[in-house]
Amino acid sequence: MAKSPQYKRVLLKLSGEGLMGEQDFGLEPKAMERIAKEIKAVRDMDVEICLVIGGGNIFRGLSGVTAGLERSSADHMGMLATVMNALGVQSVLESIGVATRVLSAIPMTTVCEPYIRRRAQRHMEKGRVVIFAAGTGNPFFTTDTAATLRASEMNCDVMLKGTQVDGVYSADPKKVADAEMYDNLSYKDVLTRDLKVMDASAISLARENKIPIIVFSIQTAGAFAEVVNGQGKFTVIN
Questions:
Q1: CA 123 and chain centroid, separation
Q2: What is the spatial distance between Cα 128 and Cα 224, in angstroms, rounded to a whole number?
Q3: Are 157 and 12 in contact (CB under 8 A)?
Q4: Do residues 12 and 148 touch, judged by C-beta distance below 8 A?
Q5: 104 assigned to some structural domain
Q6: Domain span at residue 107?
Q7: CB 224 within 8 A of CB 38
Q8: Positive or negative: CA dihedral 218, 223, 229, 230
């Protein structure tokens, strides 16, 4: 590995599905522990880390809409799912010695802190891993957009999206054998080619704030640390 990481402060975006492991729903302890160890390895490199975790392993707002729920209510239910995931990941991180704080965009002070930008920055400066929960606190926005927003507010050097595959492909590599993997893409490429790596509002916000996005596989052992060191397989969007 490189002698020192390429980034001082990063935001890691995880999908809720990454916490399911082999299950079809919810949280799998082994999957959570493995991801927590990946995070600890990077934190031990003296890199400041914040997280945004999706809620799709528990509830998806858009799925609720198709089931007949009103969109705002469904999205708020999805936000609560992200809080559940954040508290679960916090518990596992704390169990392996990583100081962690959960800050929610929807105030719920009995279980976590309300999101205050300066407080979040202070936690990171003190070496704590900060988990941002409840998305942006507003319906109609995805956790991808929330991740880009928090990365901007925290002045992160880069946003890393940990997925089930090791980069951005021209098609789903699990379905299309000869799908092409891209090493580097511009924000415009992602938008004009309608690549489904993140929603358009998240990509546009990243472009406006000049935040590079790195897409890699969180399922590959050691990949998070490798990417922070500029190594391994990944796609850069900038």
A1: 18
A2: 18
A3: no
A4: no
A5: yes
A6: 9-237
A7: yes
A8: negative
Task: Report if residue 68 sits inside a domain.
Answer: yes
Phi and psi at 163, nearest 5°, equal -120, -170
pLDDT > 70: percent of the chain: 99
DSSP-based three-state secondary structure for 71: helix
Query: The domain that contains 24 carries what CATH number?
Result: 3.40.1160.10
Cα 94 to Cα 169: distance, rounded to the nearest angstrom: 35
Which contacts (CB < 8 Å, 24+ apart) does range 19-27 have?
A: 19/53, 19/57, 19/85, 19/88, 19/89, 20/57, 25/57, 25/58, 26/57, 26/58, 27/57, 27/85, 27/88
Predicted TM-score (pTM) of the model is: 0.94
Give alpha helix (H) positions in 47-142. Answer: 61-66, 71-95, 117-125
Q: Is the pLDDT of residue 187 over 70?
A: yes
Distance CA 92, CA 100 (A): 10
Kindly report which listed range (54-68, 81-95, 122-136, 187-201) carries the lowest average pLDDT score: 54-68
Q: For 126-140, what is the mean pLDDT?
A: 97
CA dihedral over 89, 156, 214, 186, signed as positive or negative: positive
